[in-house]
Structure formats: C-alpha cells, structure tokens
From TrEMBL:
<keyword id="KW-0732">Signal</keyword>
<dbReference type="InterPro" id="IPR016286">
    <property type="entry name" value="FUC_metazoa-typ"/>
</dbReference>
<dbReference type="GO" id="GO:0006004">
    <property type="term" value="P:fucose metabolic process"/>
</dbReference>
<protein>
    <recommendedName>
        <fullName>Alpha-L-fucosidase</fullName>
        <ecNumber>3.2.1.51</ecNumber>
    </recommendedName>
</protein>
<dbReference type="GO" id="GO:0016139">
    <property type="term" value="P:glycoside catabolic process"/>
</dbReference>
<comment type="subunit">
    <text>Homotetramer.</text>
</comment>
<feature type="site" description="May be important for catalysis">
    <location>
        <position position="281"/>
    </location>
</feature>
<dbReference type="InterPro" id="IPR018526">
    <property type="entry name" value="Glyco_hydro_29_CS"/>
</dbReference>
<comment type="similarity">
    <text>Belongs to the glycosyl hydrolase 29 family.</text>
</comment>
<dbReference type="Pfam" id="PF01120">
    <property type="entry name" value="Alpha_L_fucos"/>
</dbReference>
<feature type="signal peptide">
    <location>
        <begin position="1"/>
        <end position="19"/>
    </location>
</feature>
<feature type="domain" description="Glycoside hydrolase family 29 N-terminal">
    <location>
        <begin position="20"/>
        <end position="352"/>
    </location>
</feature>
<dbReference type="GO" id="GO:0004560">
    <property type="term" value="F:alpha-L-fucosidase activity"/>
</dbReference>
<dbReference type="InterPro" id="IPR031919">
    <property type="entry name" value="Fucosidase_C"/>
</dbReference>
<comment type="function">
    <text>Alpha-L-fucosidase is responsible for hydrolyzing the alpha-1,6-linked fucose joined to the reducing-end N-acetylglucosamine of the carbohydrate moieties of glycoproteins.</text>
</comment>
<keyword id="KW-0325">Glycoprotein</keyword>
<keyword id="KW-0378">Hydrolase</keyword>
C-alpha cells in the first residue's frame, strides 16, 4: 500500500509538472517567454551550408537555379560548371578547412551579442550534423566530415556565456517525400513524420539549445507539421523545457500570430511599440543571408546603420538578430568581423541603455527626430539615444518630465551635462565640444536621465 501511494504521488508530480501545456495554440501561446531572451536584446544569425559553395546570388541558390530557372543563375552555372553538374556536387566542396569554432565564438562574444542562431538545416535539406534522418546529405558523411553544430555548441559553452540557438527549416525544396505530400495537398504527412519531426527531436536532445528558430513552412499548415504537438513536448518534457525560447514560424498562417516571440517578416522593424515580444532579423549583406562572392561594399550595411537598427528595435520592444554568412571554407570574412567588433565597441559604452531595458512610455522623441528612448525601471533611468550628433551644440528632449532639484543628465562614457527646462515639458541638454578622439563612441550617443518622470 505504502509503495503505491509513493508511486501515485510521483505520477501526480510528473503530471502536474511536466504536462502543463496542451497541443493547442491557446495553451502553447499562454507560456511565458523565458526572461533571458527579452534581456539579451542582441543576437547573431549564421547562415552556413552547401549554398556557401556557389556563394552566388543568395542562399536560395538551388531554388533560383533549378526551381525558378532564373537566367542569371543558369548563366552562372553554364559559365563555371560542366553541364551535368548537380547541386549535390557542391557538397564535397563544402570542406570548412579553415573553420575554427573558438575563433568564431571570440568574434561573436566581441560583438556584445548574448545569443547565436546557427542554421542546422536550410531549405536545401543538408544537415550540419550527422543526422540519422538525412542519409548521406549531411556534414559528417560528406564535405567537412565533422559535426559542425556540435563543434560550435561545444566552443560556445566552453569559451563564452552566449546562449545557443538553432535554426531549422521545416520543409525542403526538392525532397521527394515533401513534394509527394504537397501534391496530396498535405493530406498525407510522410515527410514531417519521417524527416522534420525526428530531426527536431534529435537536435533538441543532442544539443539542448536555448532557442529554436523554426523557418520555411512550405505553404503547409501547422497541423501538417504537428507543430503544437512538438511544442507541447518541447515545453513539457524536453531537456530544455524551462529555458527554451521559440519563434512564430510553425506553419502557414502561424507567423506573427503563434509561438514564442514574433519575427513577422525578414528585416521586420515596425518603428513603433509592439506589445508582444518580437525580433528583427537583419542581414549585414542587404541582398543575401548566405555569403556572396560578388557582393560590393555598398551592399553591406555600415556600422552606423546597424547601431541605428539595434537602437530602434530595442526601443520598440524587440531584439536584433544580426546575420553573417560564413564562407564554404569556414571563415567569417573581415568585413563581417569588423561590423561585429564595432557593435561590441559601441555596446561597451552604451550597453546599459540596451541590455535588461524595457520600452519607455514613448519610443522616439515627439519633437527631435533621431532620438530613441529606453528605460530601466529598477534604477528609474531613462535613456535617450541620439543617432546623429547635432551641430547646434544642444539637443531638445521634449518627452521627459524633469525637475531642477532632482534630474541629472549624463553622457554615457563621458560625464554629467548641464541642461535647462523647456516649455511645456522637456529639457535642452548642452552637449560638450569634443574632438573625435574625445568622443565616448563613434556612432549614436546616449544620455542617461535620472530623477525624471
């Protein structure tokens, strides 16, 4: 009798603790977002795969070449490869011979980012780990002959405090099992049951990521993918059930509606407060997520633009996920490295206005353009981030309510500044005359206001 009561208590404990979420959107969407993600504000996206070998046009190379038959892609292949060359023939050339996971982690850490999101499988179907479900179309059996996901996960956990995020595409352009299900109007579910879902369980159990970035629904509804069933397992029973964060790309129609945080569209940056947690995924290369050999300098966002995107995104309640595309041989090219290290230089000075902040009652100043606000409720500090240094020697902040006896204004990385009240509310802050080498940073300057309402 005694044994049975202990067992039944244990079963009750399992039931109450681990079966909190049901496989419905209503239940899945009720899960609170783990706090670390909102506090992190800034992550690095990494698009790396077989598409890094042709490194032409886009990471959608295969689709544009053979799915859409775009003339520029067809011409590129005719000029550079023999006529019988297939996309699969690129895989042995994906060797990653210069790949150094520790060096990557050093670059990512130096950027000031708090998490990374690595493509474990893009729409081409090639898995960056030795999946049991990808036959020989994976990085262990062909190309690098190593577990690239495992190498990065290990380096990240050994040499940094960055959170590990994994990207995974639900569908695969040319997989015959997926094509057959699509031809059946997704009334058959052979592909998700034999490929997508087993892979998802595999990467969660094997690498224990704290973020799962789902993508590519192939126009199939979430019911076809059994997304709510998988997410219920992820939140109830998986080894990362308490810490894992997910996005909103879980089937046709779920984007910007269901899941953890919203991504809505690529490069989503609404410019106003969004109540639900969201992420702006933005690529340094304006035209592609994967590496492109034909990119010009003008195709890359400069550091001023990237800092501006981070500031605007965080002010409106979002996180910035900034993308780099490594080369087929495993390098993060100097232009990407420079951009990331410069983001880190800026965050060393201005990080307190970004990390662990929340949206303020207004996002950007209602009078002065190019001024964005963030807020730390605990310290009751308001941060006004000025995207361009004014020629006038002062800046007017119209929204803070100030008091001469209480309010103090500090230029981060410098010292306190003097100010005057303006009518009806707000203040005029006098900026110091600084030479370029005296400036606390090279892009976007932060004023911290304490004792303001």
């Amino acid at each position: 009798m005694h044994h049975w009561s202990i067992l039944s208590l244990y079963l009750l404990f399992i039931g109450t603790c681990y079966c909190q979420y049901k496989p419905t959107w209503e239940s899945i969407d009720s899960r609170p977002l783990p706090e670390w993600f909102d506090q992190a504000k800034f992550g690095i996206f990494i698009h790396w795969g077989v598409f890094s070998v042709p490194s032409y046009g886009s990471e959608w190379f295969w689709w544009y070449w053979q799915g859409q038959k775009y003339p520029s892609y067809t011409a590129f292949m005719l000029e550079n490869y023999p006529p019988e060359f297939t996309y699969a023939d690129f895989a042995p050339k994906f060797r990653a011979e210069f790949f150094d996971a520790k060096e990557w982690v050093d670059i990512f850490s130096s950027s000031g980012a708090k998490y990374i999101v690595l493509t474990t499988k893009h729409h081409e179907g090639f898995t960056m780990w030795g999946s049991k479900y990808s036959w020989n179309w994976n990085a262990v059996d062909v190309g690098p002959k190593r577990d690239l996901v495992g190498d990065i996960a290990t380096a990240l956990r050994t040499h940094s405090d960055l959170h590990l995020g994994l990207y995974h595409s639900l569908f695969e352009w040319f997989n015959p099992l997926f094509r057959a299900d699509a031809d059946n109007h997704f009334n058959t579910t052979v592909f998700p049951k034999t490929k997508t879902l087993p892979e998802l369980y595999e990467i969660i159990n094997k690498y224990k990521p704290e973020l799962l970035w789902s993508d590519g629904d192939g126009d199939a509804p979430d019911g076809y993918w059994n997304s709510t069933g998988f997410l219920a397992w992820l939140y109830n029973e998986s080894p990362v059930r308490d810490t894992v964060v997910t996005n909103d790309r879980w089937g046709y129609g779920s984007i910007c509606k269901h899941g953890g945080y919203y991504t809505c569209t690529d490069r989503y940056n609404p410019g106003h407060l969004v109540k639900h947690k969201w992420e702006n995924c933005l690529s340094i290369d304006k035209r592609s997520w994967g590496y492109r050999r034909e990119a010009k300098l003008s195709d890359y966002l400069n550091t001023e633009e990237l800092v501006g995107a981070l500031v605007e995104t965080v002010s409106c309640g979002g996180n910035l996920l900034l993308n780099v595309g490594p080369t087929h041989d495993g390098r993060i090219v100097p232009i990407f490295e420079e951009r990331l290290r410069q983001m880190g230089q800026w965050l060393k000075v201005n990080g307190e206005a970004i990390y662990n902040t929340t949206a303020w009652r207004v996002q950007n100043d209602t009078v002065t353009p190019g001024v964005w606000y963030t807020w730390r409720p605990k310290e009751n500090a308001v941060y006004a981030i000025i995207l361009s240094w004014p020629n006038s020697g002062y800046v007017v902040l119209s929204d803070p309510i100030v008091s001469h006896s209480k309010t103090q204004v500090m230029l981060l990385g410098y010292k306190p500044l003097t100010w005057d009240s303006v009518n009806p509310t707000g203040l005029k802050v006098y900026l110091p005359q600084l030479t370029p080498d005296q400036m606390p940073c090279s892009w976007a300057w932060t004023l911290r206001l304490t004792g303001a309402a």
